[in-house]
Backbone:
C-alpha cells in the first residue's frame, strides 16, 4: 500500500522543475541584462577616468623648474596626452578618439606660473547599438552617449 502512494507522488513531481524554470528564467534574464548594460556603459568611462587620473598624476609630480620652463612645458603636456592616448587606445575609439583638455590651475599650461592644481578633463561619446532606442534620453544629436571624465589633483612638485 505504501509503494503505490510513493509511485503516485513521484508521477506528480515529474516536470515540476521544468515549470519552475519556465517561470523563473525570464525574470532572471531580465535581472541580468541591467548589469550587462551598465557594464557596457561604465567600462569606457572607467578606462577614460583612469587614463585622465594617470595623466594628471604625471603632471602633478613634474618638478617646479620644468613646470616654469616655457621651452619644456609643451613637451610635458604632450607626454601627458600620450599617457592618456595609450590607455584609451584599448577602447578602439574609431574615427573620433577623445582628446583630453589639460589645464594647470585655471589656465592652460603656459610655463609662466606654478599652478596649485592640475586638471585633465575629457568628454567622450560612446555608441551603443545593443540597447537601441531605450537610452534615447541620454544620447546627443549624433546618437552617442556622452561621458565626461574629469580629474583635478593638487600640484605637489613645489
Residues:
Amino acid at each position: 500500500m505504501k509503494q503505490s502512494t510513493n509511485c503516485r507522488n513521484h508521477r506528480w513531481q515529474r516536470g515540476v522543475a521544468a515549470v519552475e524554470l519556465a517561470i523563473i528564467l525570464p525574470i532572471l534574464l531580465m535581472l541580468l541584462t541591467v548589469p550587462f548594460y551598465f557594464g557596457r556603459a561604465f567600462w569606457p568611462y572607467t578606462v577614460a577616468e583612469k587614463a585622465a587620473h594617470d595623466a594628471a598624476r604625471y603632471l602633478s609630480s613634474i618638478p617646479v623648474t620644468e613646470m616654469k620652463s616655457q621651452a619644456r612645458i609643451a613637451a610635458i603636456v604632450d607626454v601627458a596626452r600620450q599617457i592618456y592616448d595609450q590607455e584609451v587606445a584599448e577602447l578602439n575609439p574609431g574615427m573620433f578618439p577623445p582628446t583630453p583638455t589639460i589645464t594647470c590651475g585655471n589656465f592652460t599650461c603656459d610655463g609662466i606660473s606654478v599652478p596649485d592644481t592640475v586638471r585633465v578633463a575629457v568628454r567622450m561619446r560612446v555608441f551603443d547599438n545593443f540597447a537601441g532606442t531605450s537610452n534615447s534620453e541620454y544620447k546627443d544629436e549624433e546618437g552617442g552617449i556622452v561621458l565626461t571624465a574629469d580629474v583635478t589633483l593638487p600640484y605637489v612638485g613645489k
About this structure: Residues 2-154 form one domain. The beta strands are 101-104, 107-108, 117-126, 145-154. The helical segments are 2-13, 16-60, 64-67, 70-88.
